[in-house]
Design goal:
Elements: H1 8-24, H2 41-52, E1 55-60, E2 66-69, H3 73-77, H4 81-84, H5 98-105, H6 133-138, E3 141-149, H7 167-175, E4 176-188, E5 208-217, E6 239-241, E7 247-250, H8 254-258, H9 262-265, H10 279-292, E8 302-304, E9 310-312
Length: about 325
């Protein structure tokens, strides 16, 4: 065990040094060298969860069964280990996010091996590490956003911020919170996972593919009015719309600006998010685009974000 309690800076330095050592190693990862020798399994898990401020979970890729979740999940979702272990992850996801998570659980060789999203920018992360035996052995990495059920209201919402027509969306905000999950796919023999091979006829002795990840609560970023005069690169995202104004595509950067996940906006009309004072002007711009089929520049307008407040666009 550790002779003294390590501060966070020391832990991070050790972790960086250890990752540099692993990256320069030619041997593939094994159970013996995946962690520093001076840390026990429990100490390593505790340090990782404390540094990440999240919860560790393991999910089977074939059926989405939750095989393990750390006790720290209670601080974020208000569910205990016993509530979640053995249950289907899909039962705790927002219906619109299930397809996205199933895609992340895919271990097919035809699927992209790297699906990483940066938590701050919402952009795909480019990796420049060349494939090799070490990297292939460690499994494909995953990073994605999804909404998971909370066992309590995550945010108190004032009625004055939302009209009665938005009651369904208001309830949705109370029931789900956005989780940023980062991890990797790994295969284990069914017996090593404590599973009975006889009860899993579909496996036929094959290894069990799992997602091992850390989930963290993802706070959205709202531009501060006091920073309006500072010259910085503008935050932006790209969206495409049907002729009636409904979102048909939204890139991941929208999450950092609006707090909505792309799948929350798809199928909804942009008129639902415009301030009533701007609808007349924007409707006229919409009409001109449909008639002239040319680029139209709008005046500055207010767009409602997920917490009910408005930002200027």
């Amino acid at each position: 065990c550790l002779s003294r309690k390590l501060d966070k800076l020391t832990v991070l330095r050790m972790a960086v040094q250890h990752m540099k050592t692993l990256r320069g190693a030619s041997n593939p990862y094994t159970e013996a060298n995946y962690k520093p020798s001076f840390l026990s399994d429990d100490e390593l898990k505790h340090l990782i969860l404390r540094a990440a401020d999240g919860f560790l979970f393991v999910v089977g890729c074939d059926r989405g069964k939750i095989l393990f979740v750390s006790e720290s999940v209670y601080k974020i979702l208000n569910y205990s280990q016993n509530d979640l272990i053995g249950q289907s992850l899909f039962d705790y996801l927002h219906p619109k996010d299930i397809a996205k998570v199933k895609e992340q659980l895919s271990s097919s060789d035809t699927a992209p091996r790297e699906r990483l999203i940066d938590a701050k920018t919402g952009l795909p992360v480019k990796t420049d590490i060349a494939p090799g035996p070490s990297r292939l052995c460690s499994g494909a990495r995953r990073s994605f956003f999804c909404r998971m059920k909370c066992n309590r209201p995550s945010v108190k919402v004032e009625d004055k911020d939302f009209p009665s027509t938005c009651s369904k969306k208001k309830a949705d905000r109370k029931s789900f919170c956005t989780i940023h999950s980062t991890g990797y796919l790994k295969s284990w023999p069914p017996t090593k996972m404590g599973l009975d091979e006889d009860n899993e006829p579909d496996n036929e002795g094959c290894n069990l593919s799992c997602l091992v990840a850390i989930g963290r609560l993802h706070p959205h970023i709202v531009p501060q009015p006091s920073l309006a005069d500072i010259r910085v690169k503008p935050t932006e995202y790209v969206s495409r719309h049907a002729i009636d104004g409904k979102f048909v595509f939204v890139d991941q950067r929208a999450t950092a600006i609006l707090a909505y996940l792309p799948q929350e906006l798809l199928g909804t009309s942009f008129y639902e998010y415009f301030h009533q004072d701007d609808i007349g002007h924007l409707a006229e711009c919409h009409r001109q685009v449909l008639q002239m089929r040319e680029k139209i520049n709008t005046n500055c307008y207010k767009f409602k974000i997920k917490d009910g407040s408005f930002i200027h666009a």
